[in-house]
Design goal:
The chain has 331 residues and is α/β, with parallel strands linked by helices. The protein has helices at residues 43-50, 72-78, 94-104, 112-122, 138-148, 168-184, 196-202, 220-225, 242-253, 272-285, 300-308, 312-330; strands at 3-14, 17-28, 32-36, 58-63, 66-67, 79-82, 156-160, 188-193, 205-210, 213-218, 231-236, 258-260, 263-268, 292-296. The protein is built from 12 helices and 14 strands. The structure holds adenosine-5'-triphosphate and magnesium ion. Adenosine-5'-triphosphate binds next to strand 2 and helix 1.
Length: 331
């Protein structure tokens, strides 16, 4: 395997605050690599350093075997970037947006029309060539932006949260496009995401990031094996009962449970039906009412929970909840 990008002890401090803390990893050529982590984990900061947009406090970035900061202009040609915020020009058509970028990257004039047609086709936007980008849905804008960053035929495409804020239909289209770019155009993809399913389904390998550090690295399957158990049992109940439930769960299963949100979860091996039945019996004997009990196979969220003590899904739902509260307050 050849290495596309190598980060060596990469660190970024903002004053006393360490946003990226001694991150080392290798991204191989041809893979779709995911940086998965909650808000503030340091994903964008890592990517911004990789693109030469902010200098690291210490550490090294090697792209295609070359030191990034010693070869910045040359390497920038090899990396396409799609930032977290959408930046297509709303008052230009899809075609004009791409022409502008083609000129910026000095694509020869005679190559521009053919290139634009093929990129619009790739994005599923051929019918919208003459339409103003300002009239596009969020998903269409995103797709236009993604193919825009392919104008200089980069070897590596970096996508910062390509699907955050999009509905599931638009998300699916972005996933298809990322796969096509990776397979048909042979572009190595580095993407960040807060979505567990996205990381699980899209990425060959994932680095889980939290508070500036890489806390786990591997294929989705390797990461889920970190749990070391076959099933996760979850018991939902009123929050003030969770400690007591966790005590009973620990005694009954011999495993250390986690409390997150309104649930106690525990990873177990063996006959989970019997384990669940025994747990229900103990809870009944102790007269502890619960709201539900369920089982699932380990997910990346269980890995995150095991490593950090908090659920990534909970950090997301809290964010959604606070934006909902805001909306209600506005009304
Ligand atoms: N220019 C800056 N000055 C000070 N602090 C910063 C700066 N940029 C980022 N940070 C802080 O560094 C931490 C990591 O931020 P970063 O944007 O890299 O997170 P992220 O993983 O991309 O999160 P999100 O999913 O919300 O985009 C955060 O606590 C953020 O507030
Ligand atoms: Mg970010």
């Amino acid at each position: 395997m050849e290495t596309a990008i190598e980060l060596v002890n990469l660190t970024k401090k903002f004053g006393d605050f360490t946003a990226v803390n001694n991150v080392s990893l290798k991204i191989e050529k041809g893979e779709i690599f995911g940086l998965l982590g909650p808000n503030g984990a340091g994903k964008s900061t890592t990517i911004n350093m990789l693109l030469g947009l902010i200098p690291p406090t210490s550490g090294k970035i090697i792209v295609e075997g070359k030191d990034l900061y010693k070869n910045l202009n040359e390497i920038k040609q090899d990396i396409g970037l799609v930032m977290q915020e959408t930046i297509v020009e709303p008052e230009l058509t899809a075609e004009q947006n791409l022409i502008l970028f083609a000129k910026l990257y000095h694509v020869p004039n005679n190559e521009i029309p053919e290139k634009i047609d093929s990129l619009l086709e790739l994005a599923g936007l051929s019918n919208f060539k003459k339409a103003y980008a300002g009239t596009f849905s969020g998903g269409m804008k995103r797709r236009l932006e993604m193919v825009k960053s392919l104008i200089q035929d980069p070897k590596i495409l970096v996508l910062d949260e390509p699907t955050t804020g999009l509905d599931i239909q638009n998300r699916t289209k972005i996933w298809e496009l990322i796969r096509k770019i990776n397979v048909e155009r042979k572009v190595t993809v580095l993407m960040t995401t807060q979505y567990l399913e996205e990381a699980n389904d899209m990425c060959n390998r994932i680095a889980i990031m939290d508070k500036g550090r890489i806390i786990a690295l591997g294929t989705p399957t390797q990461l889920k094996h970190l749990i070391g158990k076959e099933s996760i049992i979850e018991i939902a109940a009123e929050r003030h009962r969770l400690e007591q439930i966790a005590g009973i769960v620990q005694k009954e299963t011999g495993e250390k449970p986690n409390i997150s949100g309104d649930k106690v979860s525990v990873s177990v091996s063996g006959n989970y039906v019997k384990i669940m039945k025994d747990l229900l019996d103990r809870l009944n004997e102790n007269k502890i009412p619960i709201e539900g009990i369920s089982m699932h196979e380990p997910t990346l969220d269980d890995v995150f929970l095991k490593l950090t003590g908090t659920s990534l899904r909970d950090t997301l739902s809290e964010e959604t909840q606070s934006s909902r509260t805001l909306m209600m307050r506005r009304r």
